[in-house]
Amino acid sequence: MSDPQAIFFDFDGVLLDTEPVHWACWADRLATLDVTLTWEYYRDCCIGIDDRVMLRNIACEAKPARDWETLWALYPAKKKLFQVRMTTPPFEAALVDLLPELRRTHRLAVVSSSSCSEIEPLLISAGIRGHFETIVGGDDVQRHKPAPDPYLLAAERLGVSHALVLEDSEAGLASGRAAGFEVLRVGHPSEVVGLLRRRLSGSGTSA
């Protein structure tokens, strides 16, 4: 396998284990409208997709059905709650230490379905924002994961054609593959350093 020009990281579940916090914040806000969001539903149906798509699905499946825009109106409050609960983001120390090394040899980017306004403050607070040349968030594209658009936009911004994608969700894995890039499946952020070292040494396996 040839060495990639760039490494694209999904954010939630790859760089940082944020999904339980996202779920808890959405569950808290949706409960104000008597809409229940269980962890099992969120885990199986919501991870990796844009929040607007998630809320459309929840609105359709709610009993009685809801207007999804009413649910979307909760987003500012959910975002604020998320920021409060993630004041000290627990990035994996080994990953933080690896980023400067990776940056010397590869172009780095974050490609996520979350908004840049949620991602960037966490990267800044951890002192690692400068390692990533660009962040592609859910607000940057019309078609979200599993469409290839987020990863294609990252490649366009960096001017690269060969990238390695790290993803944890089925939607994200499909997005990276559809963009024509090599994809590594991540089970937890603690796996990222090992996966990258094995792949870049030539012994890794794509998802």
From TrEMBL:
<dbReference type="InterPro" id="IPR023214">
    <property type="entry name" value="HAD_sf"/>
</dbReference>
<dbReference type="InterPro" id="IPR006439">
    <property type="entry name" value="HAD-SF_hydro_IA"/>
</dbReference>
<dbReference type="InterPro" id="IPR023198">
    <property type="entry name" value="PGP-like_dom2"/>
</dbReference>
<dbReference type="InterPro" id="IPR036412">
    <property type="entry name" value="HAD-like_sf"/>
</dbReference>
<keyword id="KW-0378">Hydrolase</keyword>
<protein>
    <submittedName>
        <fullName>HAD-superfamily hydrolase, subfamily IA, variant 3</fullName>
    </submittedName>
</protein>
<dbReference type="GO" id="GO:0050308">
    <property type="term" value="F:sugar-phosphatase activity"/>
</dbReference>
<dbReference type="InterPro" id="IPR051806">
    <property type="entry name" value="HAD-like_SPP"/>
</dbReference>
<dbReference type="Pfam" id="PF13419">
    <property type="entry name" value="HAD_2"/>
</dbReference>
<dbReference type="InterPro" id="IPR041492">
    <property type="entry name" value="HAD_2"/>
</dbReference>
